[in-house]
Design brief:
By secondary structure, the protein is α/β, with parallel strands linked by helices. The protein contains 13 helices and 16 strands. Helix 9 links the parallel strand 9 (about 195) and strand 10 (about 220-225).
Length: about 375
């Protein structure tokens, strides 16, 4: 199998590759692509491409629908960079609570003052702030990052409210008992001193922090955005900062509007920019890629359903990517029966318009059998895994 890296990928990940893999500089011959931030929307997908693994959580740079229609599985690495982002969110909380940035800038501006030690005592009042202990923090989105932020803030003595209508069982188990899980986001808007957003960017979440939601918040609220730039309406935020309705806005996504806002703390997208996060993401991405290429298993895909049948112990395994339409399983099994191929194990999973069928066979299917499967209307790709 040949893999191509569109961006530099940590050696902690690529070192996991066995002798069955080769890193290639030619994207056209790649069976798999490892990517971080490189844009793929205008890229022509290689005909033999089977999978794309994004070393990170966001996949805005990848054409998901185009890949799905070509039978290309796209993976991401949720949670691999969660600790790095969590730590920066905590730093953002502290920077917003106390004017550390203003104080540092004052020291730099007065570095030639020989009496700076005395001048400090007169000037430091301008940068005084408040402690975060006992303050109410609202966490919107309790995925891998949101849950870690909530737990850490609770451990620091904050009164933490968590909101996520789609929280998974695993995420719920990971939450500290001190985090109050609430069922209405309105409670966060009206009650919290600090609000941090940790949701994916979708049509339903775009500009979720807007004029109406800000109006419902407490006067002097602090808002933190380490998730996605477009979750916040920049014009509404600028007006709220100017009026004092929002005391501070901490964003990890500086743009031409936000960098000019009053009382904004703009950080140059450093959330996952740690050596540890990059290593963790690379390791997870490579493991997902290898498990799919070697076993047909899908974990953490963003365009195909999760599916895991472990390591194949049967004579053969085939994977069928297809549209999620009626009678697809019937057609697949009928062809195998006609060709006297017995199925020892099988699973079928669907996700929106697309589905995935993995079959373990007691004897290997002939080439003409594979061809007949490919000819079924709605089948996107048939792959002999083993």
């Amino acid at each position: 199998m040949k893999l191509h890296c569109l961006n530099p990928i940590s050696k902690f990940g690529t070192s996991l590759l066995t002798d069955n893999y080769e890193l290639t500089d030619e994207v056209k011959e790649a069976d798999g692509i490892l990517v971080r931030s490189a844009a793929m929307h205008e890229m022509e997908l290689p005909e033999n491409l089977l999978a794309v693994a994004r070393a990170g959580a966001g996949v805005n740079n990848i054409p998901l629908e185009k890949c799905a229609e070509a039978g290309v599985v796209v993976f991401n690495t949720p949670g691999a960079n969660a600790n790095g982002v969590k730590e920066l969110v905590l730093a953002g909380l502290l920077l917003a609570a106390r004017d550390v940035v203003g104080g540092i800038q004052w020291c730099q501006a007065n570095q030639e003052d020989e009496n700076i030690a005395k001048s400090v005592e007169k000037s430091k009042k301008a940068f005084a702030g408040q402690e975060i202990k006992g303050k109410k923090l609202g966490v919107i989105g309790l995925g891998a990052i949101g849950a870690e932020v909530a737990n850490a803030a609770a451990a620091l003595g904050m009164d933490v409210y968590g909101y996520d209508p789609y929280i998974s069982v695993n995420a719920a188990w990971m939450l500290s008992r001190d985090v109050k899980h609430i069922t209405s986001v309105d409670s966060i808007y009206t009650e919290c001193d600090y609000i941090t957003v940790h949701v994916p960017l979708m049509d339903s979440t775009k500009k979720m922090i807007n004029g109406d939601t800000i109006a419902a918040m407490k006067d002097g609220v602090v808002i933190l955005n380490f998730a996605r730039d477009l979750l916040v309406d920049d014009d509404a935020m600028a007006a709220a900062l100017e009026s004092g309705k929002v005391r501070r806005y901490v964003t990890d996504f500086p743009n031409p509007k936000s960098v000019h806002m009053k009382n904004v703390i703009a950080i140059p997208h450093l959330g996952a920019s740690t050596a540890e996060s990059e290593d963790n993401c690379a390791v997870m991405a490579v493991k997902e890629m290898m498990d799919y290429l070697e076993n047909g298993n899908i974990k953490n895909s963003v365009n195909y359903p999760a599916c895991d049948m472990g390591v194949c112990r049967a004579a053969s395994r085939i994977a069928v990517m297809h549209q999620n339409i009626p009678n697809m399983i019937g057609q697949i099994t009928a062809i195998l029966a006609e060709q006297n191929v017995n199925i020892s194990d099988m699973t079928n999973k669907s996700r929106d318009k697309f589905a995935y069928t993995l079959l373990d066979l007691e004897n290997a299917a002939e080439e003409n059998t594979i061809q007949k499967l490919k000819e079924i209307q709605g089948v996107l790709r048939v792959r002999v895994v083993k």
